[in-house]
Amino acid sequence: MPPTATRRTLAVMVLIPVAVALALWAFAWPAARTAPRDLPIGVAGPATATAPLEQRLTAHDGAFEVHRYASESAARAAIEDRVVYGAVVVTPQGAELLTASAASPVVAGLLREAVTAQAPPGAPVEVTDVVPTPAGDPRGAALAASVFPLVLAGAASGVAVTVFGLRRSRAALALVGAAALAGIAGASLADGWLGALTGDWWAEAGVLGLTVLAIGSALAGLAALVGKRGLGLGALLMVLLGNPFSGVASAPELLPSPVGTLGQWLPPGAGGSALRSVAFFDGGGAGAPLLVLGLWTVAGLAAVLAGGRRGAAARVPEPAASPTPAPVG
After folding, report:
1. With left for phi above 0 and alpha for psi between -120 and 50, is residue 140 left, alpha or beta?
2. How far is CA 142 from CA 72, 146, 186, 193, 272, in A?
3. Which residues are registered as beta bridge partners of 97?
4. CA 194 to CA 102: how far, in whole Å?
5. What is the share, in percent, of the chain residues with pLDDT greater than 90?
């Protein structure tokens, strides 16, 4: 066997198992280690009545980040603004748990189990879902499943721009146009047809399109700067890390540290959080994820334009040297 063929055979034998192991680590490890980590939760009521509850919640080292509120209305407002995932309201009649299954059905169930388990025997806990999931997607499965298609759409646009040889303004125009149409198609399906999203239609389409654009421009920008191997680096970031680290299926605060934080700095996680905010919370909590998407988009498009100029400069032929005149005589 020729030396080149031998090296390629060994490369396939080694790289495929490594890729499988990396994929299993990225997808299976966060799922197997799901647990609350500084999960924001509110407590409302008189200080004398809420103190024992706060002590029990903080006894779970690092599990909950407890926020104090003076009244039930203040706790509800914090939930609707996505400051906390839920709140326990202590009254003379007993405890009431406020949840927001639209923020995370997994967290809503976890809080229900935790608060019910800590309630005194024979004292039922009333549960009120302040921001419920829509009737078209009662378990929140459709929104959780929407992240991977967005990643694929963004990656496909970045790969297509690179493979088709589009550069500079044409590449940027193609990325923006594809993302805009993808956002419109996604909102039409998820909101108009499935009823899985219930917010402002154009805001949802904008977030979907911006997520696709952030991913696509990142891949195309990396390819413009470092060549086609940039597509592999972009796919590693967005598909292999960004998708499982997004926390959309559960919550970023349920993922192992620092995976949850890292996921929110990548477009899949930021896009999922922004979509949840505009779809169910009137934009509450959407500022930070939209900023992340905007930064990735600007950086990616800037790299596309800069890489295109560099490539154009490299292709300019050097002027031909003037022929040396033949000696006279």
Report:
1. left
2. 31, 6, 12, 12, 12
3. 88, 127
4. 16
5. 67
Measured CA angle at 234 (ends 211, 6), to 5 deg: 150
pLDDT at 262 over 50: yes
- Residues 47, 70: contact at Cβ < 8 Å? no
Matching residue, tokens 């009545």: 49
Is residue 189 classed as helix, strand or coil in its secondary structure?
A: helix
| Measured distance CA(31)–CA(254) in Å, rounded | 9
Q: What pLDDT does 314 receive? A: 46
Alpha carbons 42 and 84: distance in angstroms, whole number: 6
Map residue 66 onto helix, strand or coil.
strand
Query: Residue 310's pLDDT is what?
Result: 55
Q: In this structure, how many other beta carbons lie within 10 angstroms of the beta carbon of residue 237?
A: 19
The candidate with the shortest Cα–Cα distance to 207, out of 273, 145, 264, is: 273
Contact 221, 299 (CB under 8 A): yes
- Taken in order 197, 237, 25, 23, the sign of the CA dihedral is positive
Measured between alpha carbons, how far is 37 from 42 in angstroms, rounded to an integer? 15
Strand order in the sheet with 39-44: 64-69, 39-44, 86-91, 94-99, 126-129
- List pLDDT tens digits, range 2-43: 678 787 888 778 888 887 888 888 888 888 888 999 999 999
What are the residues whose beta carbons fall under 8 Å from the beta carbon of 238, sequence distance 6 or more? 151, 154, 155, 215, 218, 219, 266, 267, 268
Q: How many CB atoms lie within 10 A of CB 280?
A: 23
The residue assigned the tokens 């806990």 is 125
